[in-house]
């Protein structure tokens, strides 16, 4: 697959997620963009939960799976392909609807485990990118900087600087900003090299 097409897949995943968040967030009068978890949009009993899970988690997760697989192949790194595609798979499985009232049910735990494992694979993928001396310096710096910012956002929560829903938004923003920047770089690579 050509670099431009891989970039389009990644950017499409970001755009679909943002669109799903906005549409289903505004359609749900009980949803707060600042105080609720994004998972609430696909939670048991929420209006349009099935549609949000289909578009916001499954479709985006499948696109991330293919993006991760092909991005790793572009860089001739099988392990990176596996790690980033597993992130996409974990994201897709986040469509398992959480119960916002009973977070200790097996289904709710499966939802949380899916996103946590997905994020772990994504961070391992960034680590792989960050230390690979064969890659361009810009790619390595972006990966390392993104990982550091992600960890800092979590530390901010631990020290009480912001709430867990805000941390949740920061993590999503960081992950999808990296995806968008990487995708845009792939789409316009030939133009940038001229």
Order of helices and strands: HHHHHHH
Q: Strand pairing plus helix content: what structural class?
A: mainly alpha
Measured between the Cα atoms of the first and last residue, the distance is 21 Å
Helix content: over 70%
Mean pLDDT: 94
Overall body shape:
globular
Beta-strand level of the residues, as a percent range? under 5%
| Total DSSP helices | 7
Radius of gyration: 17 Å
How many beta strands in the DSSP annotation?
Answer: 0
Largest sheet, described in full?
Answer: none
| Low-confidence parts | none
How would you describe this structure to a colleague?
The protein is mostly helical. Helices cover 74% and strands 0% of the residues. It has seven helices and no strands. Helix 1 (3-27) runs antiparallel to helix 6 (164-187), helix 2 packs antiparallel against helix 3 (78-93) and helix 5 runs antiparallel to helix 6. The chain is globular. The two termini are 21 Å apart.
